[in-house]
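Bumping with the actual sequence this time:
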Amino acid sequence: MNVPGTVRVTGTGMIRLKPDTTVITLTLEGMDPDYAKTLERSAADTGRIADALASVGFAREELKTRSFRVETEYEGYQDEGAYRQRLIGYRFRHELRLRFPSDDERLGRVLSVLASADLTPELGIGYTVNDPEAAKNALIAAAVADAKEKAEALVKASGTKLGAIRHIGYSLADNAFSVQPVMLAGSARKLAMDAANLEIVPEEIEAQDVVTVVWEIE
């Protein structure tokens, strides 16, 4: 309900963005009966990926860890008619991320060196924008402009005018500003070959946000 002498309007902002940044995700998994060896294997596999990427110009610190965990793994067995479980090892899952300005030729080089790493990761190729804060600000501006346009139409119809803003309500929308058109699983060599044969044209990113603005009425 509007407070007397005010008008409250909700504005919606919508933008379409062309992705300008490529994001590759690599998820490595492995298991060993020994905890320390599990960690050693994870470090070794990650090092092989980093070395491969270094050969095409990426600094090691550009390969970021998105998540890492080690979990216990059990198997069930029968023991004199009773079902029991025993520890068989430790499984690691290491998700890595690499970002770079979108460039099909550079993407091809990355996929080629990943094929030479001879590992079995899950591979994802996604796209995003380099400056998400600018995109968020553009959304807010579009939403406020929409709210003002609606408010001006309302007061014009009522024969009044907009005065000062009394309140702005805003709840940040969960806009990731990204698309991920390719997810593949298998050996790194097969993944790279499959991805290299794909014609990837990422769709534009669509985002939406809302604000509520309260104006005084003159």
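The tokens above came from a reply further down the thread. The mean pLDDT is 86.
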